[in-house]
Amino acid sequence: MKIKKYSGELVEFEVDKLIHSLSKSGASPETVAEIVRTIRPQIFDGMHTKDLYRLAFNQLKRKSSSFAARYSLKRALRDLGPNGYFFEKWTARIFEHMGYRTVTGQQLQGYAVSHEIDVVGLKDGELAIAECKFRNTTEAKISVTTPMYFLSRFKDLVDKSFPYFGQEAQVKFGWLVTNAYLTSDAIHFSEYYGIRILS
How many CB atoms within 10 Å of residue 132? Predict the structure, then answer.
């Protein structure tokens, strides 16, 4: 049996992918198995993945609103589009929950050139800068070229002082934040060079 992805491509339905997806919501293996048993007879050849998602979401919601909320987070993030403005604001709020004071859409003069920075955060007298990469499609991936590019920008700003929130502080940390998948090369590169990543 084949199902239709967001791109329009038909792919073989794999129950293991459905189980994996439901498990990430925090539901127990027993609950996941029960949901799969309930919706499997409703899956048909050529069914769109968004309809499959809706079936799964509705069953999760019947079990627990918190399971459904976690299951729908990825979709909710995509709905922040079509551009990245609201994703940047959402990222700033995450940083605030981590104890940072934040501003978005900043222009910082590096040692060599000027940089547009999506989020600047101040915590414990140190600045963190964040590059936000928003993607509208479920299959989007962030390749190694993105952290490589961000590293060059970060190096042009690291240890430079800037006035934020009534004090001078130096850039000490760089974050790459995305709602897409990071390739393994992108993850390894980021870890090696100390770029903090959130996906």
Answer: 22
> Residue 125 burial by CB count (10 A; 0-12/13-18/19+): exposed, middle or buried?
exposed
Q: How far apart are the C-alpha atoms of 199 and 191, rounded to whole Å?
A: 13
Structure confidence by residue, pLDDT tens digits, 4-40: 876 677 888 888 888 887 887 788 889 889 988 998 8
**CB of 101 closer than 8 Å to CB of 121:** yes
Q: Which amino acid is at 86?
A: F
Question: What is the Cα–Cα distance from 199 to 182, expressed in whole angstroms?
Answer: 7
Query: Which two tokens mark 97?
Result: 């929950």
Q: Tens of pLDDT along 162-174?
A: 999 999 999 999 9
192: Cα separation from own chain's centroid: 20
Q: pTM for the whole thing?
A: 0.67
